[in-house]
Amino acid sequence: MSAPEPAQDERIPPPWPPLLLALGVLLLATAARHERLVLTALATLVLLPSLWRVFTRRWRRGDVLRGLGMGFITSHAPLLLGAFSTWERPACRIHLCMDGVLAGVPYVPWAGVLGVLLYWAWAPPPPPPAELPPPPG
Question: For this UniProt entry, which segments traverse the membrane (predicted)?
Fold first, then answer.
């Protein structure tokens, strides 16, 4: 008898060397107070495991549609945050002040892409469809 094949996640090793390298760069950039390098290292620490998970995961039916729906939902987060940023002004409590909403507009596509990526990377697989009981009769 042959041994069972390992699961897909077990065959591909996690990306530990690049993650540790990015963590080292983050620590050195923080000590040197180099803002752009800190942001780049932080983005690498977030995106590298997420992209690794997206490329190595086992895809199921409906994952793409659910991911795009999550991207549509998360793309509205900057608009809501911009609207809530004007909450302290009394005039904006009665009528919505559009300057806060418009300030979040440039971030809408990035929030959508991030929502899609994070959903595809870390969402659990959907449950299998439940079987319907036979009709009485």
Answer: 15-32, 37-55, 67-84, 96-122
Q: What is the pLDDT of residue 54?
A: 84
- Domain membership of residue 66 (yes or no) is yes
Quick one: tokens of 27? 């620590």
Whether this model's pTM surpasses 0.90 = no
Find the mean pLDDT for residues 91-110: 87
Identify whether residues 104 and 71 lie together within a single domain. Answer: yes
Nearest to residue 111, comparing CAs of 66, 73, 64, 83? 73
Q: Are residues 112 and 79 in the same domain?
A: yes
Domain assignment present for residue 29? The answer is: yes
Contacts of 48 (CB under 8 A, 6+ apart): 15, 18, 19, 22
